[in-house]
Specification:
- By secondary structure, the chain is α/β, with parallel strands linked by helices.
- It has one domain (5-277): P-loop containing nucleotide triphosphate hydrolases (Rossmann fold, 3-Layer(aba) Sandwich).
- 45% of the residues lie in helices and 16% in strands.
- The protein has helices spanning 5-27, 43-56, 73-82, 98-109, 166-171, 176-192, 206-227, 229-233, 238-258; strands spanning 31-37, 61-65, 116-118, 122-123, 128-129, 137-139, 144-149, 197-202, 265-269, 275-280.
- The strands form 3 sheets. A 6-stranded mixed β-sheet has the order 2-7-1-8-9-10, with helices on both faces.
- The protein is globular, with a radius of gyration of 19 Å.
Length: 289
C-alpha cells in the first residue's frame, strides 16, 4: 500500500462506504452502485476495496465489471463482418451482451438465501469470455451490487462530427461506426436504469488516461507472463495500445465533460493518480456525507 493510504482511506474511502451504507439503509432493498472511470483510473481496485468495507458493515456485496459482459470473440467477429470492422475490438457500446447484464442484475436483486448465481467473467489476455464453469458463484441474498466500467452510466450522446483521431480518420471517415455506437448507447440506458447511485473517478485529462492505461497493460502483461507466456506475448505494445484507446476517446472526452454534473459522487484525480477532492450531490431524502 502507498504510504498515504491511511490518510486517503480516512478522507475518502471510509466516508464513501458510510454514504453507500446510508443509501442502502434508506432504501431497505438491494442498492446498485455504478462506478464510472476512464481506463486506468482504478475502478477495479476501488470496487474491491469498497466491497470489503461494506462487508465489514455486514452488507452482502457483489462486484462485476461491464467488461465481464463483453460479447464473445466470435460474436464480435460477426459484428465486424456485418456492421463495421472496428467492432471486432471490444469496449465500445455495442460490444457487450446487454441482455445478459440486465438478467444478471435482476437475478442478484431478487436473490434470497437459496440463490446461487454465476457471475460472468471475461479474460482480457485471451480476448474472450471465460467458460461458464469458471465463473464465480455468489450464494445468498445481495445488499449492494457494484457494477464498474469505463462507460457505466454514460448518457445518450451525439457522436457524429469530424474525426478526432487517426483511427476515426482512417477507418470511420463516413461516421458509420460512430453512428452505430450512438444508437447502441441509447439501448444501454436499459442497463444503466438499474443504477441507483453513480460514482465517477474523474481523470484530469485524456493524456492521463493514455498514460495510466499503458501502465495498466504493463502490469497485466507482467502478471500473465508467469502463468501464460503465450497469452502475454500476444498482448498489446505501446503503439497498439494507443490505437486501442482511440476507440474510446470520443466517448471518454464526452463523459469527462458531462458526467461530473450527473454523478452522485465524483472523486477528482490529479496527474499522479491521487484523489484530491470528493464531491457529493445533496440528497433531499437524507442529506449528504
Amino acid at each position: 500500500m502507498p504510504a498515504d493510504f491511511e490518510t486517503v482511506a480516512t478522507d475518502y474511502f471510509l466516508p464513501l462506504a458510510d454514504f453507500i451504507t446510508r443509501c442502502y439503509q434508506h432504501r431497505q432493498q438491494t442498492l446498485v452502485l455504478g462506478i464510472n472511470g476512464a481506463q486506468g483510473t482504478g475502478k477495479s481496485t476501488l470496487s474491491e476495496l469498497l466491497k470489503r468495507l461494506l462487508q465489514a458493515r455486514h452488507l452482502q456485496c457483489v462486484v462485476f465489471s461491464i467488461d465481464d459482459l463483453y460479447l464473445t470473440r466470435a460474436e464480435r467477429a460477426s459484428l465486424a463482418r456485418n456492421v463495421h470492422p472496428l467492432l471486432q475490438t471490444r469496449g465500445v457500446p455495442g460490444t457487450h451482451d446487454l441482455a445478459m447484464g440486465i438478467k444478471l442484475l435482476a437475478a442478484l436483486k431478487a436473490a434470497d438465501s437459496d440463490s446461487c448465481i454465476a457471475i460472468p467473467r471475461f479474460d482480457k489476455a485471451t480476448d474472450d469470455r471465460c467458460p461458464e464453469p469458471h465463473w464465480p458463484i455468489h450464494s445468498g441474498p445481495v445488499d449492494v451490487i457494484i457494477i464498474e466500467g469505463w462507460c457505466v452510466g454514460a448518457p445518450t450522446a451525439v457522436l457524429s462530427g469530424d474525426p478526432i483521431n487517426t483511427l476515426e480518420q482512417e477507418h470511420d471517415a463516413d461516421g458509420r461506426w460512430r453512428a452505430f455506437i450512438e444508437t447502441q448507447l441509447t439501448e444501454y440506458q436499459q442497463l444503466f436504469a438499474h443504477i441507483d447511485k453513480l460514482l465517477m473517478l474523474k481523470a484530469p485529462s485524456m493524456e492521463s488516461v493514455i498514460e495510466w492505461r499503458t501502465l495498466q497493460e504493463q502490469k497485466l502483461r507482467a502478471r500473465t507472463q508467469a502463468d501464460a507466456p503465450d497469452a502475454a506475448s500476444a498482448m498489446m505494445n505501446k503503439v497498439q495500445l494507443h490505437r486501442f484507446i482511440m476507440h474510446y476517446e470520443r466517448l471518454t472526452r464526452m463523459m469527462l465533460d458531462t458526467l461530473p454534473q450527473r454523478a452522485d459522487v465524483v472523486f477528482d484525480l490529479d496527474n499522479d493518480h491521487r484523489i484530491v477532492n470528493a464531491r457529493y450531490r445533496v440528497h433531499d431524502d437524507f442529506g449528504h456525507v
